[in-house]
Design brief:
116 residues; mainly beta; 2 domains; 5-stranded antiparallel sheet; 2 helices; 37% strand
Length: 116
């Protein structure tokens, strides 16, 4: 998945034109479980599956990615969503909630209610 800036893509035709410049190479999948993606901005992303690890080995333009310290230890982090230590935190700066599991069941709590 690639995210494009809205300012540079005023309509669907502009989005599709940009996406045509991207390239996904799958030839390395069988040999060494590697995918290579050339982004619309020309960045080269390589991801290699590692069956002995939870996270893949990745590089952007040849620079290794440090997934062990990615997003402050979170699985995912953005201004509105963070997933870390088994808890998903969703907020917009005004309202928000947590989703986590207790006894194998999902629990939804408003941000100001979580006391675990």
């Amino acid at each position: 998945m690639e995210v494009l800036e809205g300012a540079g893509h005023p309509d669907l035709n502009a989005v599709l034109a940009s996406l045509k410049t991207a390239d996904l190479e799958t030839q390395g999948l069988k040999k060494n479980k590697t995918l290579t993606y050339q982004s619309t901005l020309g960045e080269k992303l390589e991801m290699t599956y590692r069956p002995d690890r939870l996270k893949a080995y990745g590089r952007i333009d040849g620079t290794p990615l440090d997934f062990e310290n990615w997003a402050g230890g979170a699985v995912y982090e953005s201004p509105y969503l963070r997933v870390k230590d088994g808890v998903m935190d969703v907020e917009d700066g005004t309202e928000g909630y947590w989703v986590f599991f207790r006894d194998g069941q999902p629990v939804y709590e408003l941000l100001n209610e979580k006391n675990d």
